[in-house]
Amino acid sequence: MQAIVPYLTVSNASEAIDFYKKAFDAKENSRMPEENGKRIMHADLTIHGGTIFVMDEFPEYGSAKHPNAERKSPVGIVIQLSTPKDVDAVYAQAVAAGAKSTQEPADMFWGARYAAMLDPFGHEWMLNSALEKK
Questions:
Q1: Which residue among 38, 94, 108, 121 is buried most deeply as judged by most CB within 10 Å?
Q2: SS (H, E, C) the chain
Q3: What is the CATH number of the domain that holds 81?
């Protein structure tokens, strides 16, 4: 596991996990539901070699509120991909799964192929891959 792991709070962790599987080929490593089984206290996912944790909102324990249309997440997640063509492929897959495009894939001035989108749960995802040096 990497040294820093994003922990996403969402409005429906079961649906979010299903979305991340469709959008990013996420692998679910573990899931811990609360005792009544209605919400997920913790889930561990691997996405393109990186780890993220996902949980439902638990206001009764002081957890962060999930983002929504009025309250966007202040943090974005970057998936660093191996090749520029991977940016296009993952972008197309995520948009087909229900992500909302905020930046179509493009070659950027900083020397990368880049794209960005919002998932249905209010989290921003960015795709990045270094361009070949000329």
A1: 94
A2: CCCCCCEEEECCHHHHHHHHHHHHCCEEEEEEECCCCCCEEEEEEEECCEEEEEEECCHHHCCCCCCCCCCCCCCEEEEECCCHHHHHHHHHHHHHHCCEEEEEEEECCCCEEEEEEECCCCCEEEEEEECCCC
A3: 3.10.180.10
Question: What predicted TM-score, i.e. pTM, was given to this entire model?
Answer: 0.93
Domain extent for 94: 7-130
Q: Is residue 126 part of a domain?
A: yes
pLDDT in tens, 103-123: 999 999 999 999 999 999 999
